[in-house]
Write a structure and sequence with these properties.
Elements lengths: L3 H8 L15 E8 L6 E5 L2 H11 L3 E10 L2 E3 L2 H11 L1
Antiparallel strand pairs: 1-2, 1-3, 3-4
Length: 90
């Protein structure tokens, strides 16, 4: 028969747990900050319209930075921003 200490030690893994990078959620990202602040809160919305509605709601009292759309942990270039880049390069 094992003592209580031996049972606890037997059921736990020893050593440092592996650290994996956090996966970013899919959706449209906004950074909401107090005016003049260096850091803020990231808000994720499912649709472009919901993101724009949240931006309009917060822009009165906060600084709103639109971070764009993210899929599979990476930023997606939207057609609007890619057209602007092409015009600026020409």
């Amino acid at each position: 028969m094992l003592s209580l200490h031996q049972q606890i030690r037997k059921n736990t893994k020893m050593g440092r747990p592996p650290v994996l990078p956090k996966k970013k959620k899919d959706g449209f990202w906004l950074d909401i900050r107090n005016k003049g602040a260096n850091s803020g809160v990231i808000i994720i919305r499912d649709t472009y319209e919901a993101m724009m509605q949240a931006a309009r709601q917060y822009q009165i009292t906060k600084d709103v930075i639109i971070l764009g759309e993210h899929k599979n942990g990476k930023k997606v270039d939207s057609p609007v921003t890619s057209k602007k880049k092409e015009k600026s390069n020409a």
